[in-house]
């Protein structure tokens, strides 16, 4: 199977509807960029429609402060990159937000006040919420596949990612027609996602036998099984070959175009420049700069952060990925979106 295939949108009726099809969703990238252009390019700036608002998240390891974020907001429906030199605190921040770690500033029986940690996702307070519940609320992050998951097949990995498994609901679990139906839906959805990520032919292979790039695709596909409102990707491009890089970028753009908010940590500045609607920069645990990708790299605070920590970081030379190749991806994604609209319209006409 080729790794270079372009992304395929969800095609069959058995997949859950994308957010684009849900009432009230009106994605318009030009409008989004126009709104973001009005946002002040400063750390902690307010966004027009934040899906995530974070306050006072502090994490110390011994005497070292890994994360000290006073305030930050993530715009709904946008692709936001979280960048920063090695050790800036990006992964620790992801772990805290998704319930896999707890801030030292977490509110307690003794202390709850203006300086205690608080983060609101989609209008809900997530501060005291564990990892499983965070994911059920629609904030899902990708992980590297563990050894155990490598010994499961690609399809088994997908089924593990599903929300509302029949066994989770006692009533559904004991009424056979109900769980049969739900099980079939989940399997159909997994199959659709695997098709979309060009992994369907590998469905019965062990996940451990996939290439590094295919594992990244599987991680993303598995995360999408729970229909997240926001997907958080930790270094999606690490270890991925240039051909599959383009495919991954296309997938991330289509997710955003379908209404999923994307927050990703990445060292690859080519990727950051080309697909981000907004960039947040961390250094030494703090947010030091924010702005659109084409200007934020020139911010003196960003140059300082990278020069101070990481002299050899390439902040913008596109050697592998040219503007033409990204234009091609964008055109392909737009073409597929149009094809999807046409198919939906035909389907509607057929059922009218
Ligand atoms: N469990 C831990 N125990 C002790 N120190 C830790 C732990 N986890 C992270 N750190 C430290 O916290 C700091 C922030 O680490 P983190 O991995 O969050 O940075 P990062 O920005 O994701 O870096 P990279 O880009 O290299 O992945 C680093 O100095 C790291 O050594």
UniProtKB/TrEMBL annotation:
Keyword Nucleotide-binding part of the UniProt annotation: yes
Region of interest (Disordered), residue spans: 1-27
Sequence ranges of Low complexity compositional bias: 1-17
Residue ranges of every copy of the ABC transporter domain listed in the record: 52-309
Compositionally biased residues, Basic and acidic residues: 18-27
Pfam families (UniProt xref): ABC_tran, BCA_ABC_TP_C
Domain of life: Bacteria
Keyword entries, A-Z: ATP-binding, Nucleotide-binding, Transport
Protein's recorded name: ABC transporter domain-containing protein
């Amino acid at each position: 199977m080729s790794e270079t295939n372009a992304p395929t949108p969800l095609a069959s009726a058995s997949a859950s509807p994308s957010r684009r099809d849900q009432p009230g969703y009106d994605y318009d990238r030009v409008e989004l960029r126009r709104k973001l252009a009005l946002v002040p390019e400063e750390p902690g700036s307010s966004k027009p429609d934040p899906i995530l608002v974070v306050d006072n998240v502090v994490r110390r390891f011994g005497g070292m402060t890994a994360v000290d974020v006073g305030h930050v907001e993530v715009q709904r429906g946008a692709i936001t990159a979280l960048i920063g030199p090695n050790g800036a605190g990006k992964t620790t921040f992801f772990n805290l937000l998704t319930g896999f770690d707890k801030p030292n500033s977490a509110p307690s029986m003794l202390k709850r006040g203006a300086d205690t940690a608080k983060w609101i996702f989609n209008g809900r307070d997530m501060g005291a919420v564990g990892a499983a519940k965070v994911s059920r609320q629609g904030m899902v992050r990708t992980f590297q596949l563990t050894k155990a998951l490598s010994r499961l097949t690609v399809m088994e990995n997908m089924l593990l990612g599903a929300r509302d498994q029949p066994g989770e609901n006692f009533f559904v679990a004991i009424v056979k027609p109900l769980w049969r139906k739900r099980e079939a839906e989940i399997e159909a959805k997994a199959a659709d996602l695997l098709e979309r990520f060009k992994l369907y032919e590998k469905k019965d292979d062990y996940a451990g036998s996939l290439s590094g790039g295919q594992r990244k695709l599987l991680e993303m596909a598995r995360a999408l099984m729970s229909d997240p409102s926001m997907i958080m990707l930790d270094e999606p491009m690490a270890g991925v070959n240039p051909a599959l890089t383009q495919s991954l970028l296309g997938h991330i753009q289509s997710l955003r175009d379908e209404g999923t908010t994307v927050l990703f940590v990445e060292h690859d500045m080519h990727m950051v420049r080309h697909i981000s609607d907004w960039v947040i920069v961390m250094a030494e645990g703090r947010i030091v700069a924010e702005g659109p990708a084409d200007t934020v790299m020139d911010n003196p605070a960003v140059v300082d952060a990278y020069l101070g920590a990481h002299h050899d970081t390439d902040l913008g030379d596109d050697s592998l990925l040219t503007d033409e190749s990204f234009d091609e991806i964008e055109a392909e994604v737009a073409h597929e979106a149009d094809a999807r609209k046409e198919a939906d319209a035909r389907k509607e006409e057929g059922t009218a």
